[in-house]
Amino acid sequence: MKVIVLGGDGFCGWATSLHLSAEGHHVTIVDNLVRRRTDEELGVSSLTPIRSIEERLQAWRETRNTPIDFVELDVAKDYDRLEALFRQVAPDAIVHFAEQRAAPYSMKSPWHKRYTVDNNVNATSSVLCAMVEACPDAHLVHLGTMGVYGYGKTKGMTIPEGYIDATLRSAGAEATVEILYPVDPGSIYHMTKTLDQLLFLYYAKNDGLKITDLHQGIVWGTSTPETDLDERLVNRFDYDGDYGTVLNRFLAQAAIGHPLTVHGTGGQTRAFIHIRDTVRCIALAIQSAPKRGDRVKIMNQMTETHRVGDLAQMVSRMTGVPVEHLDNPRKEMAENDLVVANDSLINLGLEPTRLSDGLMEEVVEIAGRHKDRCDTSRIVCSSLWVRPIAAE
Ligand code: NAD
Ligand code: USQ
Fold this sequence. Notes:
alpha/beta, 7-stranded parallel beta sheet, 12 helices, 37% helix, binds nicotinamide-adenine-dinucleotide, binds sulfoquinovose-uridine-C1,5'-diphosphate
C-alpha cells in the first residue's frame, strides 16, 4: 500500500514509518520538524542521540535498500501543499500523528494552550478536508488517546471502544441511541483529541470518509526491531518534565540514580502500551479499514493498566533507586480505577508485550548508555495545571 505518515519524524511516527516500510508499504513521511524546534525552545534533547531526518532516511536506504520519501510541510497551516501532496501520492492510507502531544507542554502558558489547540485542531481539520478533495477513498488512521474518556467517573465499569448506548429523556419521551462515550479531558492537549473526535464523526457521516481512531494509552520503551538495525535509526527518548511520559521517565531516572518522581499519592491508574505494539497495532489497523459510509472505527490501543505508584515501586525494586512523592502539578483525581476493553486489536491479532517481558531492563540499559546527555534540572515537571494566585 501507499501510506503517508503525518508526523513521521516523531517518537511513534518514526518507529511506525520504519515498520510499515519493512512490511513492504511505500511510505511518505510528512513532518514540519516542530518537535525538534520544541526541544530547542525547552532547552532539552532526546536522551538518545537522534539523527537529522536526512541521515535517518539515508541510513534506512542503506540498511534495507528501501526508500522512504520525506516532505517538510506544516499540516495545520499549509493546506494547498497538503491537498496537492494527497493528489500526487494518491495514498491508500494516511496515518496521522502530527499533533502537539504533551499534556504538560499544553498547560505551560496561554501561548502553549492556544498553540496546542490551533495546531492539533487545524491539522486534523485540514487532513479531512484535503482527503475529501484529493483522496476520498483513502483510509485515515488517527492516533487519539485513552485520555478522552477521562479517569475515575465510572467506578467498576469497563470503558468500551468509543461508543456507548445512552437513554435520552426529554419532555416525557425516551430514546436509546448510540453516542460517543462522554468525554472528560484532563488537559488542553487531551481536549484537542476530543475535538478531533467530532471532526471525524462529521466527515465520516457527511463525506463517507473511512476513518479509524486509535485511543492509545501511554507509550513506553523506545526501540523496535527496525530502530535497532543501525545506530543512526535510533528512536527519540523523552525524559524531561514536559514530554517524558511516566514509565519511561521512571526508567530513565533509575538509570541516572534520580529519585522516582511520583505525583501525589501515585494512585492514578493509566493504560500502557510498548512502542513495539504501537507499530504493530497501526499495521493491523491499516489492514482493516472500515467501508465508506461506516461510522468511525474506534479501537482502544493499550495492553495493560497500572497504578503510577505501583510502577514506581516495581522500578525501585528492580534498580534500588528510591521513590519520591512530589506535590502533584496536575489537576487530576488522586486515585482512580481503570478497566478498558481492547478486544478489537486483540481480535485482529495483537499479541501484547507485557511489562514483565524484560523490556524494562532494556530501557534502563539504553538510558544508562546515554546518561551523560541527561540534564537533571529538566526532570521535575514545572508546568502547573492551576497557577498559584499572586499574593496582593
Ligand atoms: P511526537 O511529538 O514525538 O511526534 C509528533 C510529530 O508530529 C513530530 O515529529 C512533530 O514535528 C510533528 N508535527 C506536529 N505538528 C505538526 C504539524 N502541524 N505539521 C507537521 N508535523 C507536525 O509525538 P508522539 O509521541 O510520536 O505521538 C504521536 C501521536 O500519538 C500524537 O498525536 C499523540 O497524541 C499520540 N499518542 C502518543 C502517546 C505517547 O505516549 N507518546 C500516547 C497516546 C497517543
Ligand atoms: N506522572 C507522575 N510522575 C511523573 C510523570 C507523570 O506521577 O514523573 C503521572 C501524571 O501525574 C499522570 C500519569 O503519571 O497521572 C501519566 O502521565 P504521563 O505524562 O505519562 O501521560 P499523559 O500526560 O496522560 O500523556 C501521555 C502522552 C499523550 C497520550 C497519553 C495517553 O504524552 O500523548 O495521549 O499519555 S493517556 O494517558 O492514556 O491519555
